[in-house]
Amino acid sequence: MKYLKKYNSFNEEFVASKPKTAPTTTPTPTTTPRPTRPGVVPGDRPGEEDAPLASVEDVIDRLNNVYSELTEKEKSDIDKYFEEK
Predict the structure, then answer these.
(1) Euclidean distance between CA atoms 6 and 8, whole angstroms
(2) What 3 state SS string does 1-64 have?
(3) What pTM was computed for the model?
(4) pLDDT tens track for 41-66
(5) CA triplet 79, 81, 85: central angle to 5 degrees?
(6) For residues 19 and 15, what is the distance between their CA atoms, to the nearest angstrom?
């Protein structure tokens, strides 16, 4: 019992009298995450076997209509162009 009293008095004097400090915690960083790069979105590319916009007959008919409405000078210019090719 004698030793218990000495322990209690020691405990009260030295251990209990010291102020306890709260443990320090480092604050967590509050940075927002960096955005990621956007993924590559494949574009609509025309295939090799797409339907043609006009048939050969439609193109020839259009050329005849435009050619018939031209002046003589414009017709000769077109004729020279096709002769060179």
Answers:
(1) 5
(2) CHHHHHHHHHHHHHHCCCCCCCCCCCCCCCCCCCCCCCCCCCCCCCCCCCCCCCCHHHHHHHHH
(3) 0.34
(4) 777 666 666 667 888 999 999 989 99
(5) 115
(6) 9
Q: What token pair was written down for 63?
A: 């050329």
Q: How far apart are CA 75 and CA 66, in angstroms?
A: 10
Distance of CA 31 to the CA centre of its chain: 22
**Where in the chain are the domains?**
53-85
67's enclosing H/E stretch is helix 56-68
The H or E element that residue 85 is part of is none
Q: How far apart are CA 9 and CA 1, in angstroms?
A: 12
Q: How many CA atoms lie within 13 A of 7 on its CB side?
A: 4
**Would you say how long the chain is, in residues?**
85
